[in-house]
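Record format v2
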Amino acid sequence: MEGKTNGKGLGVRPLARLVLGLSLLVALGTGMIMLPWSSTDGIAPLDAMFTAVSALTVTGLGVITTATDLTLFGHVMLILLIQIGGVGYMVLAVMFFRLIGRKISLLDRSALKESLGLVSISNVVELTRQVFFTVLIIEAVGATLLTVHWSGMMPLPQAAFYGAFHGVSAFCNAGFDLFNGNPQFPAGLPNDDVSLVIMGTLIFLGGLGIPVLFDLIRLRKTRRLSLHSQITLRVVATLVIAGAVAFFLSEYVSGGVLIGQNPVHATVMSLFQSVSARTAGFAVVGNFDRLEPATELVMMSLMFVGCAPASMGGGITTGTLSVMVLALWAFVRGQDTAVFKGKAIPGQTVRKASAVLTISILVVISVTWLISVTHSAPLDVVGFEVISAFATCGLSLGFTSELDWFGRLLIMFTMFWGRLGALTIIVSLAGIVRTKRIRYPEDRVLIG
Amino acid sequence: MLAREPSRDSPKPSLSFVRPALRIIVSLFLMVAAGTAVFYVPGVTTRPWELTEAMFTAVSALTVTGLTVITPSQDLTTAGQVVLMILIQIGGVGYMTLAVMMFRFIGRQITLADRLALRDQLGLVSVQGVADLARRIFITVLCIELVGMVLLLVVWAPDMEFFRALHFSAFHAVSGFCNAGFDLFTLHPDHLEGFPADPATLAIMSGLIVFGSLGIPILFDFIGYRKTGQLTLHTRMTVPLILTLNAIGAGAFYVAEAMAGGTLVDETPARAAMFSVFQSISSRSAGFIASPNFDQIEPTSSLLMMALMAIGGAPASMGGGITTGTFAVMVLALLAYARGRDTAIIKGRAIPGEMVRKASAVLTISILVVVTVTWLIALTHPGSLEEIAFEVISAFATCGLSLGFTENLNTFGRLLIMFMMFWGRAGALTVIVSLAQLSPPRRIRYPEERILIG
């Protein structure tokens, strides 16, 4: 395979292929949604495209009401798109990390190789098969549980379809649902404890990413977790708990959208919302646009951090967050390298993490500015929307439907960017200058 | 402390940094205590102040921020206003000197690099130079402020009695150069129109603010230019960056407020442009408000202001924020990474990996602190996220712009904002460094292992 040889400019081609592939998928998706029997009442091309991008990037922001504007056939198309966007991309990402090899992430590649137990390129097919089966099994279990649970409140065939739809949507962290705006379910997404626990678990597993899932599956055999899994699990657990506590504090204790619930249920809801905010985007309460400002900030932070790398989630990823914090700590302690559990984090990983953080901030601020200057809305609402798109999350303070065509294009662009990974586009834009073997004299500037 | 200097080449790097970092914090604390006490001297205030009011004012002046819970034109006597000016001067110049000296003293562990950079830029070769350095800084600052004061006096003298013009021009020259942002016009019974918005005043103030936000290393670089005939990389990088930021800021403010319909719609294009330029310069750390109805600016503009404030001034200057140095290094490192280079490069020079590490540390801690404090204030105060975040970033950047939220702060909020101003002025890393190094680091080398990112 070409990926194995050390040809020049090799880094660019898989990258261009990836961007091209996603563009084709978007075109295909738009076509699927625009099929006459997909929508109940016809659908504008831009709406269809927005929905397709949102599904393929597993975001969940919607300018249409999924439940009523699409037919059953349309729902099937949508769930296919989500599945392709979620799993297909996940596999793509894993292969991408491997293929792109030398230039960007020789390091990532070896990390992946280690965590996936791959030793040669011929294993990609095997890997794809494994990923696919793992995903299908998890989704099947989730769908079955949801079907059983929901069969009490709707006819069995509908329960089966809803179970499957929401099982996929949750595991892929897409955040599309068939309840909101559905006259049959005026209360919106069922927020009883059982539904929340099932969906929360699916979201959580989807957000861990393939490397960690595989690591967990093999745990019985290997008896040790890779550093990546250890860090990811810790960071994810911390984020979920901190998010839930913060949500509970400002929405229940000091009075907000959860007021009037019983404490146990409020706790489950807070936990679910915290899990969901990190990139799935299911809203646990109908009046989500009336969150306290403190909660908005927590949600934005959680979305911005997002999920593990090579998972269903977007954002800067938990990997970036943990490396930045470890590097900060190492720096102030006067150590040369960031250290976690007796392992040093290489300098290049730190450089990559800062690049991810910087580009993410620049993109989010620029897009927020552009939307804010062309739309009239409070800053927190616009910022929330943009971060949600960037993190492929899909939570919204109700601003999505107010977007004009320019705003929609920008949000699509942001979802695209978020799903491809913070650095992917800029790397492909920047081109590779590896032929230049010049060493420059060092010089210092003042900082901070 | 000077007595310890000879030992700075000894192999005890951790200790040599703890002291200066702690020293900065302790000295800031002592100054705050003294500053607070001054406001209880009879004849300084026109009414008795609450403790948090006095503390808040002292912290805001000493950190050259300019956020205020009192009205300087009403709540302070003329003597009190002079006291405030002195506090600003101490906070601005004293700290600037302290920072420069710290960069020189602390050494090996974190900023051997900075120390060398500063030594090159300031032309210092030995410890004996420190007293001389302090003297030079002080004289430079006084000269700039004096020029600014005379110019302001010329502009303002026709409109008010001479002694008031003298008093006002001195106060605003200091407040402008130190990027403090305190002014005596707001709510003054004789100046109901607020801060003078004529072109001459704004031009003079802008000049003072820009000089203040360049920082001593760059000012000295300019002064020494005739002799040396060359500028350091730091200067060549920072000055264009500051110009770019000001231009972008002014353009964006104009677009949002004058074109798309905002607070400057009713102004003539020339005046709108003038306000935009001034506000852009001022937001990078000074915090003067000349533009009308500033607390009603568009959301777009407040995002812009927050971004400019967060970036702030140059290192070792009157400004706060993550500093232009951090911003530049992060962007260069990003570009270098995207292009597959090992090192960030500017103007044919490589930026050392350690600088990139420091810049990321600054950015990370800044985000963590700002988000945490914003959350704490949002949790305990009613108010929109926009105005709270604006206030916190303003405090962190020691800027002093506000969307009018300062007066809504309760005691807890005031303490938090004081903490932010303090943190911002001490420098993003200073507080955490002094905390982190209370226990000495272990000298172990660890095996490397990689994790996935982004």
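DSSP finds 18 helices and two strands in chain B.
The first strand of chain B starts at residue 344 and ends at 346.
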